[in-house]
Amino acid sequence: MPELPEVEVVRRSLQKFIIGKKIKKIEILNKNLRYKIDKKLKKVAENQKVVSTKRKSKYLLIELSNKHTILLHLGMTGKIFILKNNKVFKTSFYYEKLFYEKHNHFIFNFNKSEILIYNDVRKFGFIKIFKTKNVKTCSHIKNLGPDPLSEQFNSEYMKRTIPKIKKNIKNFLMDQKYVSGIGNIYANEIIHLSTISPRKKVYNLSAKKISLLVKNVKKILKEAIRFGGSSIKDFRGIGGDKGNFQQKFRVYNREGCTCKKKACGGLIKKIYISNRSSFFCSICQNN
Hints:
The chain has about 290 residues and is an alpha+beta fold. It is about 20% helix and about 25% strand.
């Protein structure tokens, strides 16, 4: 599943192509996604201009000129394609080398030469539309914790939040009600850079470790966005650029390799925490 950096790369990709353009027609080819596509999507969104693209956690928000907002979640295998003059631009996570039209579920037609296609093999993604003023209180958004790149996610927030939490640090970072947008890949990388054991209980973190953790959350996510996300399965941005952050992985998927920290020399080990693979250094993350 795409995490915050990949969704942000998609958002920035869409920003370049669809801002200010009118959605002239919406074609619903298959309404049976994770949630059935509501008929009102066509009624409300057609003939409206795209005002902005935003991101909340792993959700894409496309704001329209009639004060409605399209909420889009890519699920496990959702992909967005922009076709311009019959040239395909890839924008989404898990981009496949072959474009299978049978997995196209809806199409936004902007004009004769530009269209947006949502393609999803496993159909775990979804699209909904809300009045913009109601987006923050919809069931998908209202219980999310602060965005880790926002000012609201800081050391003071952590110090207020963690004293009564019995989760380990890995599960805490991935719990969307405490921090929104971080998944398995980046949780591993953040914890390693912060030299914390993934098993460590979050309430046992010192003030110094909390500050370091907050700093590294922002550092890793920004670095991943700068490198275009992580191409685990051929992820590409709008111009066809492949995400390169996987080349920067310190621990994720590096079981048996040597730790990249200077003068460490530890080996990367793999364990399972809450049925998810967790990678950590046997030496610098032993506390």
